[in-house]
């Protein structure tokens, strides 16, 4: 998307970074001609990401996990480090 001079000026004036703009476009909701990412949505997103991070750390602490599937069914699962 092209940036107008007005947009560039407002970024600088309001302390909004390009990464913040991109994040809003990626995760915000459309409201007419505006993309909105408010505190409530950010708080929900942070909570979700913190939960995902906890799971990722548990998996890392175990050395990784493996899940075997076949025909859309779970067959088995195991910890990666135990099968070197």
Structure overview:
The structure is a single chain. With 84 residues, the protein is α+β, with helices and mostly antiparallel strands. It has one domain. It is built from three helices and four strands. The protein has a two-stranded antiparallel ribbon. Strands 3-4 form a two-stranded antiparallel ribbon. A hairpin with a 2-residue loop joins strand 3 and strand 4. The chain is elongated. The N and C termini lie far apart (48 Å).
Helix fraction, binned, reads 40-55%
The secondary-structure class comes to alpha+beta
User: Count of DSSP E strands?
Assistant: 4
* Biggest sheet architecture: 2 strands, antiparallel
Low-confidence stretches: none
Strand order of the largest sheet: 1-2
Listing every helix as H and every strand as E from the N terminus to the C terminus, the arrangement reads: HHEEHEE
Rg, please?
21 Å
Shape: elongated
Portion of residues in beta strands equals 15-25%
Q: Tally the helices.
A: 3
Mean pLDDT: 94
Supply the number of structural domains.
Answer: 1
Report, as a whole number of angstroms, the end-to-end distance.
48 Å
Protein name: DUF4258 domain-containing protein
Organism: Ignatzschineria indica
